[in-house]
Amino acid sequence: MKWIFLLLITTVITMLGCTPTEKPVTSDDVLNNPEKYASEEEDMNLKPGEWLTDWDQALSMAKKLNHPILVDFTGSDWCIWCQKLEGEVFSKDKFKDYAKSNLILLKLDFPRSIPQTDEVKKANQEKMKEFNVEGYPTVVLLNTEGKEIARTGYVPGGAEKYVLHLQDLLKQATIK
């Protein structure tokens, strides 16, 4: 009974946050005011296969490259299964090579000890609610419009097996 109470308290504390005082910059802001955000725009030209943390940036890249988005909802510093997924799959060359050519990677983190801005916390919470994420890790595959096409999580067997699993999910999504 105590662990349920602790889990409830932790969830409530995690979900509460400060309201940001400043609106975050979106990709539309950058496109409509290139001179104002010139240096930030250069930073947005990340290489395929790198993990993004900004929804708008990931969606923009997905449209530009016509790749689905892999969203990793994770508790990177406390979730054992998230850490296993990172260590056994996401950090391996087999996954990285596949992702570079086929996916846009978006990590939405819910850490306990790693500092995040209030804006990032709020944005991640909104996406967690939007996609009904109830546990970690949750991996959601999205089309270039940001609509869910498949959902998974940790799958044992390493990077090669995970890549085959993702390919199967994406193939099934195109058949539907």
Structural summary, described in words:
This protein is α/β, with parallel strands linked by helices and 176 residues long. Helix content is 51%, strand content 14%. It has eight helices and five strands, in the order H-H-H-E-H-E-H-H-E-H-E-E-H. The chain has a five-stranded mixed β-sheet, with helices on both faces. About 16% of the residues have low confidence.
Shape: globular
Helix content: 40-55%
Mean pLDDT: 83
Could you give the order of strands across the largest sheet?
1-3-2-4-5
Distance between the termini: 43 Å
What Rg is obtained from the alpha carbons, in whole angstroms?
Answer: 17 Å
- The percentage of residues in β strands lies in 5-15%
Instruction: Work out the number of β strands.
Output: 5
- Tell me the structural class: alpha/beta
Uncertain regions spanning at least 5 consecutive residues: 5-22, 34-43
Which assembly state applies to the chains in this document?
A: single chain
Order of helices and strands: HHHEHEHHEHEEH
Q: Which sheet architecture does the biggest sheet show? A: 5 strands, mixed
Structure annotation, total helices: 8
